[in-house]
Design a protein that fits this description.
It is a single chain. This protein has helices spanning 5-21, 29-39, 57-67, 75-78, and strands at residues 42-43, 50-51. By secondary structure, it is mainly alpha-helical. The protein has a domain at 28-86. It has a two-stranded antiparallel sheet. β1 and β2 form a beta hairpin. The model has no long low-confidence stretch (mean pLDDT 85).
Length: 86
Amino acid sequence: MGGGNAQKTAMARARHLAKTEGAGKATTAEDRKKHEAAKNALQCTICLAGFPRTAKKPELQQHVENKHPKSGKSVEEAFPGYTEDS
């Protein structure tokens, strides 16, 4: 029949061991800073919204048109760090 306390304890130990072994490497504060910098590489000068450096011009253009229609700024003015080849 099974299911005694010893079996339950052994199964719980095995699950816990598998969970801790598969946890991967721990992240450091430096890793988190690098991730945040990459995540917000482009920043809108009007509202300070962050975009990843892989954002394309249509996405940035849509942001400027939808969020700041009265500003009259272009993509290049709103995102001074943006380049076509980034």
